[in-house]
Amino acid sequence: MFASQTLSPEGSELTKSLQILDEQILSQANSEIKQLVRPLLSEPLTRSFNMLLTPTKAEINKVWKAQVYKPFLDNLGSKYPFTANANLEATPAEIGQFFGEDGYVARFVNETLSPFIIRRGDQISSKIWNGAGLGLNPQFVADFGRYFTNYTGSNSQVLLVPIILVALPIKPLFKSCHYPSAV
Asked: Are the C-beta atoms of residues 105 and 147 closer than 8 Å to each other?
């Protein structure tokens, strides 16, 4: 994905263009001229990046729905503690399959979302390039640390405390994308 390249330390053509703007074109200008001219010259780059973000957001939301949300609905969504009046209780192994260190949520974050976020422990935020970023769903950001549990090892018990009152976000991960079936 070109958008993830732009956000990476190596950068993309957009990053290199912005670097040329700052280091070669505007390097000799005084600060007043820089403040006036830089936004005009960098705006096409930022708009191009924003155009890349739209399909990127849609694709990430599609992956979330297919790899995490739908399997959650099919397997855990109707079980206790995720549905208060459920007839069945989710086993620690089932919960770990979704919320464990190698669970669906962790794999999604590590494989799909990681190029686009800054993660510090249980806190995440969107990576920003020239003022533009993905714009994560605020509820997903707020609850992020609660989507993971810890195995105690040999007896495969899962510590349920962090997730008892949590359900996976049904809404897309990004504010500007919507799926028709989202609640």
From this structure: yes
- Rounded distance between C-alpha atoms, residue 157 and residue 121, angstroms: 22
Integer Cα distance of 19 and 72 in angstroms: 43
Q: Which tokens is 86 given?
A: 């459920």
pLDDT (tens digit per residue) in 61-102? 889 989 988 998 899 889 988 888 889 998 988 988 988 888
First to last CA, the chain: 28
Residue 175 tokens read as 């504010």
Q: What CA–CA distance (Å, rounded) separates 59 from 65?
A: 10
**Cβ–Cβ under 8 Å, residues 168 and 147:** yes
pTM summary value: 0.76
91 and 76 Cβ atoms separated by less than 8 Å: no
Which residue, among 51, 73, 82, 58, has the nearest Cα to 172 in the 3D structure? 58
Across the strands, what pairs with 136? Answer: 174
Tokens of 164: 């008892």
